[in-house]
Amino acid sequence: MNVSTWNVAGEDMCPHRLVLEHVTSRWGVLVLLALEERSYRFSELRRHIGRVSEKMLAQTLQTLERDGLVHRDAKPVIPPRVDYSLTALGREAAAQVRALSAWTDRRMGDVQKAREAYDQKARQAYDEARS
């Protein structure tokens, strides 16, 4: 599937694009990477990820569960215990996210150099415009 076949107008968003947004969202990526390591209870996962609100984590988990990537195992005990883990589909998605994460780690130096060159060029253009 190529990008030109995706509806980018908004309301009638293509389902492929929605799943891509869910998997690559800020919290979606972190949830997938964390659950790739092992299953977590909600509070453990929140602490592991850090700086995510309860609302955003719950929403992300629910979205990924609906997409078939996350399994929610609610045990009928008191107090309630809910564990989250990846499904087979989720493990596959997590592997793809992990590959992108590894690429980012490998190429961060090049990205930083590009940013510095861009910023320097922008400063020069600004200075020239002011003179």
TrEMBL record:
UniProt entry keywords in alphabetical sequence? DNA-binding, Transcription, Transcription regulation
Molecular-function GO terms, alphabetical = DNA binding
Q: Does the keyword Transcription apply?
A: yes
**A Pfam family assignment:** HxlR
Q: Which residues form the HTH hxlR-type domain?
A: 14-112
Keyword match Transcription = yes
> Cross-referenced PANTHER family, in alphabetical order?
HTH-TYPE TRANSCRIPTIONAL REGULATOR YODB, TRANSCRIPTIONAL REGULATOR, MARR FAMILY
Q: What is this protein called?
A: Transcriptional regulator
